[in-house]
Design brief:
With 175 residues, the protein is mostly helical. 50% of the residues lie in helices and 9% in strands. Helix 4 (146-153) crosses helix 5. Bound molecules: zinc ion (ZN) (2 copies).
């Protein structure tokens, strides 16, 4: 039989094994015995006293005075992001904002479509060569560099290369 005495109330506790003291004392790995010096009962009293002397501070939120964005009625709330006075107004706001969202979405889609159109027309312009441009290429291909032709036509070297390749394909290799 082993014994362990509470340093606060001086009660002696008995146990067959040292692990059995867990019934009376809280564990504490930092101590040699593996248990607190004071018994569970004393510890709970101590904790209560400590709590009373030093209660945790609760944040008291001030009541905010606001105007409902739906019905304009004044209302009070503790939550800063709340903008409506009641559930009805909240539902209304939800409905309207989802409508607005849809409208905005449509607007965004239209912009996307327009951009796509512009892109397509730009790429058409890129691949479309006027008669005199083709004539210029054919006349100068054996005299000047591709870079020179590209610069003259306001196109990239790669684009001219590509065009030359196509022209050669059309005329079976002869230009
Ligand atoms: Zn005790
Ligand atoms: Zn309201």
């Amino acid at each position: 039989m082993q014994s362990k005495t509470c340093t606060a109330c001086n009660t002696k506790f008995y146990s067959l094994t040292s692990d059995g003291f867990v019934k009376y004392f809280h564990r504490d790995k930092s101590l040699k015995s593996g248990f607190k010096y004071i018994c569970k009962k004393c510890r709970s009293i101590y904790k209560k006293k400590l709590y009373k002397a030093n209660p945790p501070k609760r944040e008291i939120k001030p009541l905010l005075s606001k105007f409902c964005i739906v019905c304009s009625k004044p209302f009070q709330t503790k939550i800063e992001k709340i903008e409506v006075c009641c559930k009805e107004c909240a539902d209304f706001k939800k409905r309207v904002s989802s409508k607005l969202y849809k409208r905005e979405n449509k607007y965004r889609e239209n912009i996307k479509k327009q951009k796509l159109k512009e892109l397509q027309s730009a790429s058409k312009r890129r691949y479309h060569y006027k008669e005199d441009e083709i004539k210029f290429i054919k006349e100068n291909i054996n005299i000047y560099s591709t870079l020179y032709i590209a610069k003259k036509l306001g196109r990239t070297k790669i684009a001219i290369w590509e065009k030359i390749r196509k022209l050669k394909m059309q005329s079976k290799g002869k230009l």
